[in-house]
Amino acid sequence: MELKNLRQTLAAQALKRQMERAIKAESAPFKPPAMDAGRTARQARERFEAMPQYQQIKIMQVGGDKLGVASPFFRVHEGIAGATTRIGGRAYINYSSYNYLGMSGDPLVSARAKEAIDQYGTSASASRAVAGERPIHRQLERALADFYEAEDCVVFVSGYATNVAAVSYLFGPGDLIVHDELAHNSIAQGAQLSGAKRLIFPHNDWNALDALLRRARREYRHALIAIEGIYSMDGDLPDLERFVEVKTRHEAFLMVDEAHSLGVLGRTGRGIREHTGVPPGAIDLWMGTLSKTLAGCGGFIAGCQPMVEMLRASAPGFMYSVGIPPALAAASLAALERLQAEPERIAALQTHGKLFLDAARAAGLNTGASAGYSVIPVITGSSLKAVHWSNALFEQGINVQPIFYPAVEEKTARLRFFICSTHQPEQIEHTIKIMAQLAQ
Ligand code: PMP
User: Fold this and answer.
1) What is the band of 1 on the pLDDT scale with cuts at 50, 70, 90?
2) What residues contact 151, with CB distance under 8 A and at least 6 apart?
3) Which of 158, 179, 186 to mutate to test the pocket of ligand 1 (most atoms within 8 A of CB)?
4) Could you identify the atom of ligand 1 that is nearest to the CA of residue 289?
5) What is the position in ligand 1's atom list of the atom closest to the CA of 161?
6) Exposed, middle or buried by CB within 10 Å (0-12, 13-18, 19+), for 43?
7) Is residue 294 in contact with ligand 1, taking CB distance under 6 Å?
8) CA 33, CA 30: separation in Å to the nearest integer?
């Protein structure tokens, strides 16, 4: 009984105190609730630190430190990066740039970009649907459509976003997306985001793709096959004619990502279709980036008018993202025009690719399946060796990036060389000589 009274008394006192506090708070000026901002920030930080993605980065860093290998990534280039570059005040032969035809830094290309800045400023400000276009947007799209002998073309602000936006918007649940196992991450991301069934076929294996479609095709409404003109890790090519046959047989759409083959393959740089003689209309979606041979930033899809119209009218990745900056559109248009006017640049790139490949093979280096154009790997066989070789080459004035696990399988860790029209044969020979010494 006494206990009950005591509880009641305490409860009444607590209520009184609460009411007094409430009255006081109402009459007092507003004060935000007391919060230990430092503590909250520390807690958020700890939660980020515990994320597996962060742990993975730290494991790599600690591993690198323990082995005494400096990170070869995020190097600061102090000028135009092409066949040569400047890092930390020192000149390097450079193989880490996609400036395949030397168009980035070309005085005429830069002049066109500068003119566009003077005329339109530096930003397109918002989505082209909302903030409006500049004449250069449509001029670039028309020029790309003509280059691909396609009905129309739409340019996105990023190459990566082009694949994600186009694939995820055009296809959805009930559809099938099949892509090469080595297709770029942006294709895989687009497929995942689409909600379509995603299947993967072994690299360049059109026979396996055919068998897969024979089994699975009828269960789905639309089917998309996505491949690349030149594969970005291995520098090899698909047998385009066979892929066209397969896509025709199974009433599928075929998309070819020409990031590394536009301006690289074919006598006039028209990519894998010129290289193989396949008519342009046989491919339903031509995709390309503006960041490589076209000296800008962005991506495009060229193809038939209804498909391009859909993308332009309602693909979220286009509608809800800013238009390409006019200066970059101007740079890419200028590069596309120069590429067509100066096929000798393309010939030089092809000569240098072949020279690199032949010399590397003759030196006993493993170049994998590379066809010897824009991308040539030298497979070291272990991640550690790839990083060691990259650092050793760097010390000798050669900049090339290692690619290692998990980007590729451990046993196929490599150095990846991007070949430019502007490389000199002596630079290539010198590079191979040093690598041959490292391999001994
Ligand atoms: N596709 C392929 C095959 C690529 O290699 C890349 C990037 N190198 C992209 C798309 C994305 O292009 P961007 O870097 O211009 O966004």
Assistant:
1) very low
2) 145, 303, 304, 305, 308
3) 186
4) 15
5) 16
6) exposed
7) no
8) 9
User: pTM score, two decimals?
Assistant: 0.91
Residue of 231, 246, 322 lying closest to 283 (CA atoms)? 246
Helix 425-439 to helix 383-395 angle, to the nearest 10 degrees? Answer: 130
Residues, the chain, total? 440
Does the Cβ of 159 fall within 6 Å of ligand 1?
yes
Q: 174 alpha carbon to ligand 1 midpoint, in Å?
A: 27
Question: Which atom of ligand 1 is nearest the CA belonging to 298?
Answer: 15
Q: How far is the CA of 289 from the centre of ligand 1 (A)?
A: 6
Residue range 412-438, pLDDT digits in tens: 999 999 999 999 999 999 999 999 999
Both tokens of 10, joined, read 């305490």
Residue nearest to atom 5 of ligand 1 (CA): 232
Tell me the pLDDT of the chain averaged across its residues: 94
Ligand 1 site-directed mutation target among 256, 258, 291, most atoms within 8 Å of CB: 291
Ligand 1 mean position to 334 CA, how many Å? Answer: 20
Question: CA–CA distance from 232 to each of 183, 236, 240 (Å)?
Answer: 8, 8, 16
- pLDDT tens digits for range 25-79: 666 677 766 788 889 999 999 999 999 999 999 988 888 888 777 788 899 999 9
Q: Is the pLDDT of residue 3 over 70?
A: no
Q: Token pair of 283, please?
A: 């491919």
CB atoms within 10 A of CB 244: 20
CA distance 75 to 94: 12
Q: Which of 99, 145, 173 is nearest to 331 (CA)?
A: 99
Does the C-beta of 261 come closer than 6 Å to ligand 1? no
- For residue 193, the surrounding DSSP H or E stretch is helix 185-194
Instruction: Give the residue from 420, 428, 405, 429 showing the smallest Cα distance to 374.
Output: 420
Q: Ligand 1: which atom is nearest the Cα of residue 290? A: 15
